[in-house]
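Dear colleague,

Following up on yesterday's call, I've attached the two folding results inline so they're easy to grep. Please treat them as preliminary; we haven't cross-checked anything against experimental data yet. The first protein's sequence and structure tokens come first.
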Amino acid sequence: MAPEHGGNRYLPFVDLIKLETIDERTFRSIAYPFSPGGPVGQGRAYGGHVYMQAAWAACQTVEPGFLLHNVTGFFILPGLTSIPFVYKVHIVRNGRSYSTRIVNVTQAEGKGVCFTCTCSFKLAETSPLDVQEKMDIWDKYKSVLAGKTPTDFEECPGLDVSWYWKRRKETGHNDAFPGLETRKVAMAAYNDHRHPLDRRQLILYRTLGDLPPDPNLALCGHLYASDRNSLFIVANHFEVGDVYSQMGSLVHSVVFHTGMEELMFGPSTTTTSPLDDATGKWFCKEDWSDRVAAGRGLFHSKVWAPDGTHLITIHQEGMIRVTKKPTASPDEVAAIQEKEKGWKPREKL
């Protein structure tokens, strides 16, 4: 049995992702998962742990040269922190250019599948058609980034909610996050005068420890980062981070858009961006939400390279309930309406 919250410790990514091979298509986790909030949290495993390990298990079953390009996962049951995850890979197709796998994940006996995902792989290719919006992160967000470097910002909180921020300020304690160094940009100067639909959160990340030159391993590092504090950001932007009654991931999708040169972790390159310094290359996750309804919220994110290349798109649907029962009480309705009255008007387009 794992010690309580044994996954809340700094650990190199290569050690975090390791799997024990049971047979050629069945694998078992070794490292304990991060538990958001540790002893003051809900005692659940961080969703990004099972998400990236399921994809890594699928990677063990494809031919060399096939790289992840699209992963969609469904969270069915909360992950336990003290029992290994077992990953069963099902081969759907081995094609000439694309291959597909389904991974079903179990944990506690008799509980059934706790997570399932579809992983699509493709051979590398180039195209003369390569179009994206131009982006200079340090210019667009100069109100919060000017004169800063990634390490000027605090480590992401273990739980990104107001009571945990207060506790952290009072005690100085923050739960150690394995696998990645993640920094949360203080966005007040950008967000405070904006409507919730126009607010943004930037998270900067890189791996703890070096990675061997395995492209799929690097892609799994990005998958692990993709879920970092995602639904908390939605709740905070709509100002219900202190009143939600239930929260949990439902469906999580990640699409990789570029070749591997831009997606690899490691040494700095030749750009002049503050994301590319002497200590290594950082990636920037730009997060927002444009819809909450029916007890659910939609999380969007784009991941940017230091030079402004759009590398990854992330979409997540999650449960965000602000009522204690399916039908809201008059007091609950009034409380939400009062919050909405304080929202700033939308930006003019």
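Below is the second protein, in the same order (sequence, then structure):
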Amino acid sequence: MVTVAVTAKFHNPSLSRRKEWQQATQLYRDNKQFCIDGWENGDFDKSVTTASINNNLYSAIQNQAIREAKSDHSKDGAVRYRESQPFAVNNQNWELDTTENGTVVVGFPCVSQWWYTPIEVYDDIADPVERLVEGDADKTRLQVYRRGDDWYCTFNIEYAADTAGETPIGVDIGERHILAATAHGEDKSMLVSGGEAKYVRRKYRSLRESLAEAGALRARNRVGDKEQRRITDLNHKLSRRLITFAEQFANPVIRMEDLEGIREDSSWSGVHSWHFHQLQQFITYKAERAGIRVEKVDAYHTSQRCSACGSTGTRDGDHFSCSECGRGRHADLNASENIAQREGDPCTA
């Protein structure tokens, strides 16, 4: 299943629409605050319904405000909403359609009526929007909000992925080799040493320790900022190299390990200061801009499994060997090939 997050700007909404939408954001805030205050004061329990709410919002929007207030209250307790809130409606109470001239419009209830308003469909969202219009995709809740003088809506579109003819690119991120990537079935790979990253970390760690001993805390903080910029620049370069590698293949899909919990599971002490998550983020958004889907796969045993026969092999430094089939390969490339072979959960279109 592919999930695409869509944010679209409304095209020249009328003054009356903008006034009513602004009113709705304020009523939505008041609706949520009414629920929070009622729960805090013991006026009613969490089963509160729209019958207890006295404002002019459509009941579908009031119900969504109640759901959001429950979530906020469960997490943060006595919340105070200082600003107007984007108002929302669940997936069953809004629609996306086209006019006779092909203009895409979003329809949703508000205060006085349903509003059908054109949105600007840019290239990156054209395909999923068309799928939704044609009935080949599902949608999630709609949010409407103001940014400056403009109004926007945001929602997710979900549809089944067509994986025919794709080239899976497995990506392993590690210490000795920061990136190892293999194009499954293409007999091509790339391997990038982690030496530069380790040098940056050692250099700035030493500087921080020296400055801390000297009591120069302000200078120590500036050193930390410089290290962050160096690492961020490196991650940008690495992610660009990977996208360039992937683009040479037909219909590439990048697959990376789901690194949730790696800080707890890793034996490498440097994992606590290395920006794994940032590198994956850069890869993900650059891939999305290039039209390449990214998936997160289960990281279990990608380093121990033989990518050729599936047996458990032996890793000795950078070398992986399998006693069952006799295969020997660079250990990180073996891991990247295992990653390429696994289907995962999409995090881009």
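For the second protein, one point worth flagging: The first strand starts at residue 2 and ends at 9.

Best wishes,
A.L.
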